[in-house]
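example protein:
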Amino acid sequence: KMEEFLNLTQLKTSLKEAILLDYFTAGFWWAKEMNFSHIQLSGFMDLLNFALENLSGKHMTLGDNLKELERAMSGKGETESEEGGDLNLFSTEQAKAIIDYLVTSLFKHYKAYEYLFHRRREEPVISNE
């Protein structure tokens, strides 16, 4: 169902799509294990997308993305991105857990995600040999 929701059409042949499916599926199950309500689950998935879109679409550096996440989570001022989190959705403990999750799932691997989204890869050549 996640594959359909994310509109992933080349999952079996695209490393990028497989990684995105893994990223969002892992986040979804983590949030379910945290016993988030449906509204919190939706907000958390928005935050995952928010951070990933800052990297993939806006080419933000790790530092800039962390600043945007801080603004979004704290509700301070306007973020450069149109979407962000809602301070009232999560308790302080939940917000800390979300930040820890994002650090371990995305920010520690930021260079790998940058490579995935911003480096041109040559198409593999498959021959009869």
